[in-house]
Design a protein that fits this description.
Shape: elongated
Bound molecules: zinc ion
Mean pLDDT: 83
Helix content: under 10%
Number of helices: 0
Low-confidence stretches: none
Number of strands: 3
Largest sheet: 3 strands, antiparallel
Order of helices and strands: EEE
Radius of gyration: 18 Å
């Protein structure tokens, strides 16, 4: 029997979302734009202004969409 290989990584679909991110390069803070009500939010960590940007995040499969999991191996 072959041993388990490391290439089991599933191809994760990515989606582009709009975010606010901190202007400070050293600061990693960012948040989804849809969560922000203010027009010009401040960074919750360092209180610097935030800038509009984009980010790629894995697509989250909605619960109940079990058909997508069929045939993907044992749970
Ligand atoms: Zn910050």
């Amino acid at each position: 029997m072959a041993t388990t290989t490391l290439d089991e990584e599933q191809k994760q679909e990515l989606e582009q979302i709009e975010i606010w991110k901190c202007k400070q390069p050293e600061c990693k803070a960012w948040t989804r734009k849809e969560f922000i009500k203010e027009e010009l939010p401040d960074c919750p960590l360092c209180k610097n202004p935030m800038v509009r940007s984009y980010k790629h995040v894995p697509v989250v499969n909605k619960k109940g969409n079990k058909k997508f999991l069929v045939g993907k191996g044992r749970a």
